[in-house]
Design goal:
Elements (H helix, E strand, L loop, with lengths): L1 E5 L4 H11 L13 E8 L2 E8 L2 E9 L3 E7 L8 H16 L1
Length: 98
C-alpha cells in the first residue's frame, strides 16, 4: 500500500520532524501493545516494523521535497482492513509532520 502525505516544510525539515517524532508511532496503534522498530537506512529513508496482536507490518518511508511517501506491506490477515489502515496512515502521517 502506498500513501503520499503532502507537506510544505521542505525535505530537511520533514526529515527532522520524522526523526524527532518516530517514537510516537507506537501510540498510534490501538491498545498500546505495539512493538515498533525504526531505522534510517538512508538519509531520506526510514524503515519501520510494527508488531502487534500476532501480526507484523513493515514499511518504508521516503522523504521528498513536497511529500512523504509511506510504503506499507500488510500481511494477508490484515488486507481486509486496508482502507482503515490507509486512512490512519494519512492522518497520523500528518501528525508526525505537524
Amino acid at each position: 500500500m502506498r500513501v503520499a502525505v503532502p507537506h510544505t516544510v521542505g525535505r530537511a525539515e520533514a526529515r527532522r520532524r520524522l526523526q524527532a517524532r518516530a517514537h510516537e508511532v507506537a501510540g498510534f496503534i490501538p491498545g498500546g501493545m505495539a512493538d515498533v522498530a525504526v531505522t534510517w537506512p538512508g538519509e531520506d529513508r526510514m524503515a519501520m516494523r510494527i508488531a502487534a496482536l500476532g501480526q507484523e507490518v513493515t514499511g518504508m518511508i521516503e522523504v521528498e521535497d513536497a511529500q512523504v511517501v509511506f510504503n506499507v506491506t500488510l500481511p494477508p490477515a490484515l488486507s481486509f482492513v486496508e482502507p482503515a489502515i490507509r486512512s490512519a496512515v494519512e492522518a497520523n502521517g500528518r501528525k508526525l509532520l505537524g
